[in-house]
Design a protein that fits this description.
This protein has one domain (8-82): Rossmann fold (3-Layer(aba) Sandwich). Helix content is 29%, strand content 12%. It has 4 helices and 3 strands.
Amino acid sequence: MATDPVAIPAVRKLLGDRIGFEEGNYVAAEGADALVLVTEWNEFRRPSFDRLKQIMRQPVIFDGRNVWNPAEVRAAGFVYEGIGRGAKTG
């Protein structure tokens, strides 16, 4: 599943139904084995990590924009990888 507050129409036009789209952030994360953040929209900056952990199948996050605090996400029980962060910071 994927979600984006702006890009869904354009991506749907390019990819058709090869991937599923959801309007809601948490709906898109339901049952997910991993969450990958690739955009910095305000809607994604302060999620409830407790809620995400409850609805995801596996608590794994790849932060492609380095928006979230690694210590905070790990303290919430997630495996966290900040894409492009050095081993000591991410």
